[in-house]
Design brief:
By secondary structure, the chain is α+β, with helices and mostly antiparallel strands. It has 3 domains: 92 residues, no CATH class; 102 residues, Band 7 domain (Tetrahydropterin Synthase, Chain A); 76 residues, no CATH class. It has 10 helices and 8 strands. The strands form 3 sheets. The chain has a 3-stranded antiparallel β-sheet. Strands 6-7-8 form a 3-stranded antiparallel β-sheet, with helices on one face. Helix 2 packs across helix 3, helix 5 crosses helix 7 and helix 8 packs across helix 9. The longest helix has 43 residues. The protein is rod-shaped.
């Protein structure tokens, strides 16, 4: 609610400036007329002081006797000013990026981390960026630092490490609302790096290693259980057909002979030996 009130207040200030652009007063109009006469009399010379050029990515906010002359900024291309009475300020409309210096932040779960980021913004309203704030670029940089600390102070460490996209979107929304009165449009905010204390890094590494070892043991136990079930089913099949055991012996012998050509101890069934003993 407060942000909406500030936004309306900023828009009313811009409208008030626009409505009062024509009220120069009698003295003001006299100075403007004298300046125009001066330009006409010394036309070949004054033309170099009257003609101004701004680039495609720039706009010019013209002040006449300290008042903004038009609701819309001039440019790009050629525009005219009156010497002695008019002055102008160039505003760059290109997207500007800057790094947020590393900020020491205490998270919601009382962990101290160092976080930095990058912000992309541009001027959307040249008149508001000149009339409503002394230095829109510097003010946006300072506001980005405080916004980063305020937003991350409400997050715990797990959210900070896993939900960077959500944090960046929240920062962009807060910055865009706060800088709307300054004629600034925040296009993108990104979290670059999160630096943790070395002790916390070692503790998290040990925790991750223990978790992986526990998971590996569970997987190995599940494999042993599945193998035992398969062996049980195989033993039941062999018990139903005694000749299957002999075939298994021959298959094992063939496997051993193919892999290792060395002395092979082959188990001989007792029923075969008893048959020879009877003879």
């Amino acid at each position: 609610m407060e942000m909406e009130q500030q936004k309306r207040r900023g828009q009313s200030d811009v409208n008030l400036i626009s409505e009062r652009t024509g009220s120069l007063g009698c003295v003001g109009w006299i100075l403007v007329i004298l300046s125009s006469i001066f330009v006409i009399v010394l036309f070949p010379i004054t033309i170099w002081f009257c003609v101004k050029i701004v680039q495609e990515y720039e706009r010019a906010v013209i002040f006449r006797l300290g008042r903004i002359t038009d609701r819309k900024a001039k440019g790009p291309g050629i525009f005219f000013v009156l010497p002695c009475t008019d002055s102008f300020v160039k505003v760059d409309l290109r997207t500007v990026s800057f790094d947020i210096p590393p900020q020491e932040i205490l998270t919601k779960d009382s962990v101290t981390v160092s976080v930095d980021g990058v912000v992309y913004f541009r001027v959307s309203d040249p008149i508001a960026s000149v009339a409503n704030v002394s230095n829109a670029d510097f003010s946006t940089r300072l506001l980005a630092q405080t916004t980063l600390r305020n937003v991350l102070g409400t997050k715990n460490l797990a959210e900070l490490l896993s939900d960077r996209e959500g944090i960046a979107h929240s920062m962009q929304t807060n910055l865009d609302e706060a800088t709307d009165n300054w004629g600034i449009k925040v296009e993108r905010v990104e979290i670059k790096d999160v630096k943790l204390p070395h002790q916390l890094q070692r503790a998290m590494a040990a925790e991750a290693e223990a978790t992986r070892e526990a998971r590996a043991k569970v997987i190995a136990a599940e494999g042993e259980m599945n193998a035992s079930r398969a062996l049980k089913e195989a033993s039941l099949v062999i018990a139903e057909s005694p000749s299957a055991l002999q075939l298994r012996y021959l298959q094992t012998l063939n496997t051993i002979a193919a892999e290792k050509n060395s002395t092979i101890i082959f188990p001989l069934p007792m029923d075969v030996i008893s048959h020879f003993m009877r003879k």
